[in-house]
Every structure is written in C-alpha cells, then in structure tokens.
Design a protein that fits this description.
The protein has 212 residues and is of the alpha/beta class. The chain is 43% helix and 14% strand. The protein contains 8 helices and 5 strands, in the order H-E-H-H-E-H-E-H-E-H-H-E-H. The longest helix has 21 residues, at 191-211. It is elongated, with a radius of gyration of 20 Å. The relative contact order is 0.15.
C-alpha cells in the first residue's frame, strides 16, 4: 500500500485504527522519517501505535539527484552541499525513543544477520517499533561523498563506520553504534487498544444510563 511522501505514518494510523488486529510494517526513508514526516513519526511513537517502522536511510534524497538530508554526515559532499554538509546529522532513533517508542534499534546493510533478528524482535512488540537501517546509494551518495559508485567500496565504508576502523587500520571519522538501543516491548498499552477500551466503556456507561 503506497502513501504520499512524508505521510506514511498518517496513513498507517488510519489503517491500524480500521483493522487493529493486523500487524503493519511501514517502510520509510530518511527524507520522510527525519524531515517532512517527522511530526507523524513523533506522534505515532508517543501514542505507542502498534506498527513496525523500518527507516531505510541512504543519507540523502537519492531518488531526486542526491541532495543532502537530515541524516547526511557532517562534512560530506552531496549534490546540494558541494563544499561539504555544514549541519550536524540527525539521529531519528534518539527522537523516537524520547517520544515514547517501546522498541528502537539500528543496523546496516552490511549486518543482515543482525537485521533479520532485530526485525523479528520488533514484530513481537505490541506497540511502536522503529528499526533504522543504513545502506549506501552508489549512484549519488557514493559518487558525491565517497568518490565511487563501486558497490563493494560503498558497503565497505558503511561497515568500517560500524567498527570505527578503516581497512588500513586508521580510525574512522565517526562510529555508528548498531544493535537494539531501547527495548521496553509490551511495557505500556498499544494505542488502538486504549481507544477500543474507551469506546467499550463509554458504550457500557450509556447503555446503563439508558436502562435507568
């Protein structure tokens, strides 16, 4: 099911309210989760909406030419930051955790065994789960930021930044910490369940009042 860019969580909220017994997996990008759709993301996490959000983060608006996004690492060249990204990058994991998400994890395309395990864990949470997956865009981010469209070299760059060490032994300029960052699965009621319970309570009260 497709949705307008930036509005995936708004559509997902409606679907979950209409069919609360179904499990929904929502795929968004960094331009959605960390920019135009951030308000929807924050409030879905705050409500503890029972969906799994997978954020596919390629660190830029790659389908429109490679412009920088809020998750582009500082200092890296993109189509719209030819002298380097001057803004600090934005971590959506920190934001959804602060907003109330009950499961938050981060992984990369080079850690697919870990990714499979994380998604399985996320699906077990009856609440809001957020899985942040970083992967390279060879065509744009690779070409502009790393100077290569070679898939293996781009994946190697991703992997090095999860280890903090380059292939030549030198330290990377930053490190991505991957794995489960926050797990409070099933620790508080799921949003649509709260609404159903409230509706049932109101109906019962009105029925009782009518009987009197």
């Amino acid at each position: 099911f497709g949705a307008t860019h930036g509005r995936a969580l708004a559509v997902a909220t409606g679907l979950k309210l209409a069919q609360p017994d179904k499990k929904y997996l929502i795929v968004v990008g960094d331009g959605d989760a960390a920019a135009i759709g951030t308000s929807h993301l924050i409030h879905a996490a705050r409500r503890n909406l029972g969906v799994v959000v997978i954020c596919e983060d390629n660190m830029g608006y790659e389908s429109t030419g490679g412009q920088f996004s809020p998750t582009t690492p500082a200092g890296y060249v993109t189509n719209s930051s030819p002298y380097g990204m001057v803004e600090p990058s934005f971590d959506p994991c920190d934001v959804v955790k602060a907003a109330g998400a009950t499961f938050v994890a981060e992984t990369t395309a080079t850690q697919w065994h870990q990714t499979v395990k994380i998604v399985k864990r996320a699906l077990q949470n009856d609440g809001f789960s957020f899985v942040h997956v970083r992967f390279p865009c060879n065509e744009n981010f690779g070409a502009y930021a790393l100077g290569t469209r070679d898939t293996l070299k781009n994946l190697e760059w991703i992997y090095e930044h999860t280890q903090g060490r380059k292939a030549d032994g030198g330290a990377t300029d930053f490190v991505w910490e991957t794995g489960i960052k926050h797990d409070a699965s099933n620790s508080r009621p799921e949003f649509t369940k709260l609404l159903r319970d409230m509706n049932a309570r109101v109906r019962a009260e009105r029925t009782a009042a009518g009987a009197r």
